[in-house]
Amino acid sequence: MRVFESLLAGIGEGRWSELADLYAPDTVVEQPMMPPRRLRIEGRDEVRRHFEAAAGSGFTIHPTNVVIHQTSDPELLIAEFDYHLRYAGRTTTSANIQVIRIRDGLIVESRDYHDHLRFAALAGRAGRLADACQRELS
Fold first, then answer.
1. Which of 11, 16, 32, 35 could form a disulfide with 55 if both were Cys (CB 3.0 to 4.6 A apart)?
2. The whole model's pTM is what?
């Protein structure tokens, strides 16, 4: 649970360059609901590139309303939380769920369900996102 708390704290404090160190070298992160197509990130180096892109996105992200559900599997946790988002002076809140497996103090796999449409709308890119989704249907 401490690893997940460190992840959220790092996101909230904008410490993007440190976050990949919370993941195992062979980690797998999936975002099944990422539009226009699901995203699969394999390995710590790819996770690092993903967080570097987030650092340059212009968003300020603060996790709130965090609820962590323990499971019968000691490696697995399920977290529900909100992100309070800020972009170019505008704000909104987005819902999130993550299913995370932590082994030996590192995230070995994660399935992340984020409200990507909310991020796109806040940045004024919802139309482009919808167009990209439409092209995926063709």
1. 16
2. 0.93
